[in-house]
Amino acid sequence: MKSRRVIRAFLSVYLWGFILYQSTPVIVIPSTNYAPKELSPVPVLYTYTYAYGVKTAFKHHAGSIENLLEALRKKAVDFAFGDFPEAIAYRLYPVPKDIGCAVVRVSDTGIFVRLSHLVFEVIPSLLIFKEPEKVLTRLDPPLGNCTVIAHDGRVLISTFFGLDIPPYSLILDAGRNVFFSREVLIRSPDPEEILRSSIALFGDVSLIAFAYSERSFYLPGESTHYDFRYVLETDVPNPIIYLYRDGELFGIYTQNRINIPLFEEGSYSSVLKSYKFRIGAFYFGVRTLAVVPPIRLL
Predict the structure, then answer these.
(1) At residue 202, what are phi and psi to the nearest 5 degrees?
(2) Core vs surface per residue 186-210: b (16+ CB within 10 A) or e
(3) N- or C-end of the chain: fewer Cβ atoms within 10 A?
(4) How far is it, in rounded angstroms, from Cα 243 to Cα 137?
(5) Separation of CA 168 from chain center
(6) Rg of the Cα trace of the chain?
(7) φ/ψ of residue 230, rounded to 5
């Protein structure tokens, strides 16, 4: 009988902990933007994905370059910045110094956050054969000139059989950095331009963000003197788009597309989140999915 009471108490505590972890409510008062159904103009963009802060054997860490290149290919990651002494195979580049970006690392999330995520997200998801959310979606990253996700996991053991533990495929599974370009990148990319203009993706999400005026269109990280319309479009179910001006909240939109005319000078950035369900102004299970760097109206 005593053991049954202990089991019931444990299950009760776990159930309430699971509910609290998964569905903590957030109050959201959204606005409505009557965005056109079709994007106009439609920019021609090339999308590149990269990893940042990768550790290899060059700084006395384990891990082979061949395994890293293969993991990049399987993960559809175009190139990586890491502790490489020089450019390698037009896919691996040294980390640039003084990037001026907010760097988000899984290792900085804290042991309590990672343990809670393991207990209340990873284990239950695996038991029902569901892909667990990434721990990064639980963060509320700082806004700045740019935000970059660091893939700073470390290979601890390399064997003579070419096996790395943990494998690079696991290290690279911590989110994505995405860069939009008007032109095809040929061989060596410009690190400063890429880092300044990168969109940090904390979860599995597809989005496009840009601005346009009568004269041209502008990508994240760029500036213009002309009034523009800010556009963000995503396929996320239950989206919440937070739009900021100079770091201050400018508007909240619970829709998949916004197209907002902007006339005041400032730096306009955005954060994409999602929620599981809502009751009135209370939104439950809010997760961070992407951080878009600012487009500046001068």
Answers:
(1) -90, -20
(2) eeebebeebbbbbbbbbbebebbbb
(3) N
(4) 18
(5) 19
(6) 21
(7) -90, 125
Q: Which two tokens stand for residue 2?
A: 């005593």
Phi/psi of residue 294, nearest 5 degrees: -75, 150
pTM of the predicted structure, to 2 decimals: 0.90
> Is the backbone of residue 235 left (phi > 0), alpha (psi -120 to 50) or beta?
alpha
Question: Which residues contact residue 268 at a Cβ distance below 8 angstroms, ignoring those fewer than 6 apart?
Answer: 211, 230, 243, 244, 245, 250, 262, 294, 295, 296, 297
* Each residue's pLDDT tens digit, 227-264: 999 999 999 999 999 999 999 999 999 999 999 999 99
- Token couple for 4: 């049954």
Q: What distance in Å separates the CA atoms of residue 245 and residue 294, rounded to the nearest whole number?
A: 9
Taking Cα atoms as reference points, which of 209, 49, 177 lies closest to residue 101?
177
Tokens for 100, please give them: 């001026």
Handedness of CA 222, 228, 233, 239 (dihedral sign): positive
Q: Which two tokens stand for residue 42?
A: 């439609």
DSSP 32: -
Identify any residues that bridge with 231 across adjacent strands, giving them in sequence order: 210, 259
For residue 8, the tally of other CB atoms under 10 A from its CB is 10
Q: Are 27 and 281 in contact (CB under 8 A)?
A: yes
